[in-house]
Automatic annotation (TrEMBL):
InterPro entries documented for this protein: EFG_III/V, G_HFLX_dom, GTP-bd, GTP-bd_M, GTPase_HflX, GTPase_HflX_N, GTPase_HflX_N_sf, P-loop_NTPase
Stated name of the protein: GTPase HflX
GO molecular function terms noted in the UniProt entry: hydrolase activity
UniProt main location, coarse: cytoplasm
Keywords from the named record: Coiled coil, Cytoplasm, GTP-binding, Hydrolase, Magnesium, Metal-binding, Nucleotide-binding
Subunit structure as annotated in this protein's UniProt entry: Monomer. Associates with the 50S ribosomal subunit.
Domain Hflx-type G: 199-366
Localization per record: Cytoplasm
Family designation: Belongs to the TRAFAC class OBG-HflX-like GTPase superfamily. HflX GTPase family.
Organism: Microbulbifer spongiae
Lineage summary: Bacteria, Pseudomonadati, Pseudomonadota, Gammaproteobacteria, Cellvibrionales
Chain coiled-coil ranges: 165-192
Chain's role: GTPase that associates with the 50S ribosomal subunit and may have a role during protein synthesis or ribosome biogenesis.
Signal peptide coordinates: none
Length: 444
């Protein structure tokens, strides 16, 4: 029901109103791209201006007649509004136009239904669709007032609408329980990565900013890439080795869009939690977009909804190949900490700078150096092996073991804390090829 899509596009009339009550209106070009991504074939684009929406039909009487003429002249099968319509507005417009009407939320839900590939993704889309449909059930049952009465025909006392709503609630509850199981499984995976001290870096950004192209460039994962909105719906995760830092997990997530329906944010919470629990966010931005500052703010709005706005961010300005005479570069703050990288994921220019920037951001939390462990301190050596902190070891003639370490600073402090009181603290040495390590200066 939810995932069998027609192969050919539907003739559609698009409607976009500029409302003076909205401070930052949506871009009509993005609305058209959304319609094309859903498989619609726009035959007419109707614009208008209005102070506030009409409570009955959203548009005024004259504009509704104009839309009706366009439907008749073009033989359109569908009218799509670039706005969120109430159920009553949707019904009234359909009654006047004698054709199917879809609002922005329904359009995005349709795109998500087409893009879902995994079982989890399909469950999340179906949950969002059912929640959206629950408010619009009356559309399909206006011809059924009450089940038939009479001898031998009396029903359970429910209207058909009530029966349908009850069945919807049962299905929604079943999906929510299955997604809760998925959420627990993801949480177990995050706890396992946390115990192993493996950093998680999540790609976030506006839809079609080039996240999946960048993900493929860094991981060779072969994730589906296409120049369309919401090409990626199901999250993908890959392990990446960083120089002088170690392993990290890179996660590709669903793109954001202006006025992302709350039903989708709620349904995709299990997926979006990968971003909310990341060590570092890579905020991918289309550098060639004219309104990139507005798009960045829309991403921040969604991050606030999933409680991820306070996480460390590294801004990645992508698609510099579409700019004139623009070379890759890394922008750092006064302390030399990378804040932004300008690159092209399509050509690969600047991707080495991004890897370096990620390593420097994550490496600031790492300690590198050599630790001399005496024979009676073998328990410390075992603990270091347990957290995969030892990169190499050499035994000396006197029985001491010289360990080459790379580990998070907090683990380094925790493991060496018991030796501070007894005066038998292991000897910390700088790496031979890099000079004195910052960890030595801090912990000596």
């Amino acid at each position: 029901m939810f995932f069998d899509r027609p192969e050919s596009g539907e003739l559609a009339v698009l409607v976009h109103l500029e409302l003076s009550s909205i401070d930052s209106p949506d871009d009509p070009r993005e609305f058209e791209e959304l319609a094309l991504s859903a498989g619609a074939d726009p035959v007419s684009f109707i614009f208008g201006q209005r102070a506030t929406p009409d409570p009955k039909t959203f548009v005024g009487r004259g504009k509704l007649e104009e839309i009706g003429r366009a439907v008749q002249e073009q033989g359109a099968e569908l009218v799509i509004f670039d706005h969120i319509l109430s159920p009553s507005q949707e019904r009234n417009i359909e009654r006047a136009l004698k054709c199917r009407v879809l609002d922005r939320t329904g359009l995005i839900l349709d795109i998500f239904a087409q893009r879902a590939r995994t079982h989890e993704g399909k469950l999340q889309v179906e949950l969002a669709q059912l929640r959206h449909m629950a408010t619009r059930l009356v559309r399909g049952w206006t011809h059924l007032e009450r089940q038939k009465g009479g001898i031998g025909l009396r029903g359970p006392g429910e209207t058909q609408l009530e029966t349908d709503r009850r069945l919807l609630r049962v299905r929604i509850d079943a999906i929510e329980k299955r997604l809760e199981k998925v959420r627990r499984q993801r949480e177990q995976g995050r706890r396992a990565r946390s115990r192993a001290e493996v950093a998680t870096v999540s790609l976030v950004g506006y839809t079609n900013a080039g996240k999946s192209t960048l993900f493929n460039r860094l991981t060779d994962a072969g994730v589906y890439v296409r120049n369309q909105l919401f090409a990626t719906l199901d999250p993908t995760m890959r392990r990446v080795e960083l120089p002088n830092v170690g392993a990290m997990v890179l996660a590709d997530t669903v793109g954001f869009v202006s006025h992302l329906p709350h039903k989708l944010v709620e349904a995709f919470r299990a997926t979006l939690e990968e971003a909310a629990n990341a060590t570092l966010l890579l905020h991918v931005v289309d550098a060639a977009a004219e309104d990139r500052l507005h798009l960045m703010q829309e991403v921040q709005t969604v991050l606030e909804e999933i409680d991820a706005s306070d996480l460390p961010q590294l801004v990645v300005y992508n698609k510099i190949d579409l700019l004139t005479d623009f070379a890759p570069r890394m922008d750092c703050d006064d302390q030399g900490v990378p804040q932004a990288v300008w690159l092209s994921a399509a050509t690969g220019a600047g991707c080495t700078l991004l890897v370096e920037a990620i390593a420097r951001r994550l490496g600031a939390q790492m300690v590198r150096g050599r630790l001399v462990v005496r024979p009676h301190q073998s328990r410390l050596r075992a603990q270091l092996y347990q957290i995969n902190a030892i990169q190499g070891e050499v035994y000396r003639d006197n029985g001491d073991c010289e360990l080459q370490l790379l580990l998070p600073r907090r683990d380094f402090q925790r493991l060496l804390a018991p030796f501070s009181s007894n005066g038998e603290r292991p000897v910390w040495l700088p790496l031979v090829d890099t000079g004195e390590d910052s960890g030595q200066r801090e912990h000596e």
